[in-house]
UniProtKB/TrEMBL annotation:
MF GO annotations: DNA binding
Coiled coil segments of this chain: none
UniProt keywords, alphabetically: DNA-binding, Restriction system
Any single biological process term in GO: DNA restriction-modification system
Taxonomy of the source species: Bacteria, Pseudomonadati, Pseudomonadota, Gammaproteobacteria, Vibrionales
All residue ranges annotated as the Type I restriction modification DNA specificity domain in the record: 8-182, 259-363
Family designation: Belongs to the type-I restriction system S methylase family.
UniProt keyword annotation of DNA-binding present: yes
Pfam family of the protein (one): Methylase_S
DNA-binding keyword on record: yes
UniProt-recorded name of the protein: EcoKI restriction-modification system protein HsdS
InterPro entries to which the protein is assigned, alphabetical: Restrct_endonuc_typeI_TRD, Restrct_endonuc_typeI_TRD_sf, Type-I_RS_S_subunit
Amino acid sequence: MGSESINTSTLDEMCELIVDCPHFTPKWTDAGVVVLRNQNIRNGELDLSSPSFTDEAGYQSRIKRAVPKAGDIVITREAPMGEVCIIPENLKCCLGQRQVLLRPKSDVSSEYLYWALQSPFVKHQISWNEGTGTTVSNIRIPVLKAFTIPRWGKQEIALSKPLSNLADKITLNRQINQTLEQMAQTLFQSWFVDFDPVFDNALDAGTPIPAALEPRAERRRAVRAESGFTPLPDEIRRLFPSAFVESPDPSVGLFGWVPEGWEVSRLDNILELAYGKALKKSERIEGHFHVYGSGGIAGTHSNYLVEGPGIIVGRKGTVGSLYWENGNFFPIDTVFYIKPKLTYSLIYCFYLLQTLGLDRMNTDAAVPGLNRNNVYRLECVVPVQKVLDIFTEILKSYRDKIDSCNSEIISLTKLRDTLLPKLISGELRLDSPEVAQAQALVSETVG
């Protein structure tokens, strides 16, 4: 069905409030009330993993026109233009800059309007200033109010449901991945930085604790006394020593002490930082393989340089950034990629690198850069092989689950992006096979 046959309403007709943000910079604080920033709103999602705050006085100064509440929609006016999100339940927040708050009327579904604003039908209006025939870089309030939205009456809630269900499943998978990643980091910290299993064995065996480590031992006693404490399985604990020895380098280990039988080794004995290869944008052919720069995925290419899985480390630009890539990939010349040495696993190298503070090792004030030789000189406490092997085995199960979730996220996102324009335009009916496929995918769980 063509757009000319679609019933529409203007955004102004569908909203009880369309409120511009305050036109002054918020008072920034380290904590307090969340200030929504355009960088938090991407691809229809509100990402508050790196929130910004103002104090109560700053909050009050920014809500004089309207107090944002759950179900309100925020749309960015510029930089970038036309990104949207829905304010969730239990979030006290205020608008930042270059944003507009939309409050749908009581008979308009917030979810439907949210999805409609992301459809090509509306995106075209956002990016094209009809009447002048020129693209625009910001949205003026009168233009915003005049945007037309497809209307489907009582079907609007039902039309938005498959899209919202897919979005919820994508969010759930990302949360699972975040939990698994946190579990992996926590395990590495416990075993190879805090040496918790060594303390446990020493405390159980009555082995004398070095005076410098006694405060740590006391904290470990307190953790072990908690009702929810679960010790490691015996077969794993037996792989760890029960005593500490002085490190040849007093700056390595815990206050100069390391687990007995473990080694202190330079990083260049553990892994190689291999250089990526120059690949200009003009030389890239869009394909199946991710191209990595120091800022992460920078596009795709028809060929790969490195077989996955792999680790990418930012060398120039975003110094010390770390990325895990499961598939084959092409690292360009602003990054290193990792080649483990001897019997060290890629997974162990990935979590070891996260503890070394590479992002603080910039050696070039003009163009931020990571000097490979400086990284190689870093010294690390290295466990015995059996501990490395069991760590790799446990972490591989985490990575497999993360990779499975990521694959499902890609499938769900593609399906959502296929359904969105067709549902909003009326091209697709709710009883279509595509909608049934979406419902089936949402009901499945990642194995």
